[in-house]
Amino acid sequence: MRLLSGKVVALAHNLVETLVSSSTIEVSPEEVAEVQIDLESVLREYIRTEREITDKARDVIATQKRDYTDLNKVKAQIARERNFGIGEGMLEYLIAQLIEALIHSRHVEEVFGMDNELAAQMTPVLRKHLAADEELDQDVRRRIKNLQEGTVSWDVQYRKVMDELKRTKKLDEPPS
Questions:
Q1: How far apart are the first and last CA of the chain?
Q2: In the chain, at which end, N or C, are there fewer CB atoms within 10 A of the end residue's CB?
């Protein structure tokens, strides 16, 4: 699974909409946008931290003169050291962070659901958005399969193809 920055606004919108409509959280109508911003900040911080870990993993590989095929192993090790969820642990980590944001947000009047109820409400929304991101990621990887992952040229081409696909599929637009 992969969280793309172009999906943050839509994802936060859908999460708040789901939680409010199910009465799991209570938010006054004028504060809904603020709660969405709170959740967007959690999602953006996840993306920033994941990039930071990836950059650190690349640095480790370069300084230790390891093969770039070890990138995911090194990245997973750094993430474990930081108690950060990637790969299979991403969903659980994100849900925990989002719940904390909701509990501590001054824009949320009341959180009625227990953590497991909140997680049950958020999981399908997250899976839907992350699955779309995963499909996009796989499409990009198919298009640049001739390049070695982890190299500078792979990173540049990945971003270029990703931006192109997001534009053509209109994934950078906020929800209507």
A1: 25
A2: C
Structural domain includes residue 140: no
> Tens of pLDDT along the chain (176 residues)?
678 787 899 999 999 999 999 999 999 999 999 999 999 999 999 999 999 999 999 899 989 988 877 888 999 999 999 999 998 899 999 999 999 999 999 999 999 889 999 999 999 999 888 877 777 888 888 898 888 877 778 888 888 888 888 788 765 544 43
Return d(Cα 36, Cα 173) in angstroms, integer: 16
Report CA Rg, the chain.
Answer: 18
Whether 24 is in a domain gets the answer yes
Question: What is the rounded distance in angstroms from the CA atom of residue 57 to the CA atom of residue 171?
Answer: 28
Domain that holds residue 90: 5-130
Give how far Cα 11 sits from Cα of 3, 64, 125, 141, 167, Å. 10, 38, 7, 23, 18
73 domain-assigned? yes
3-state secondary structure of 26: strand
Domains contained in the chain, number: 1
Q: Tell me, yes or no, whether 78 lies in a domain.
A: yes
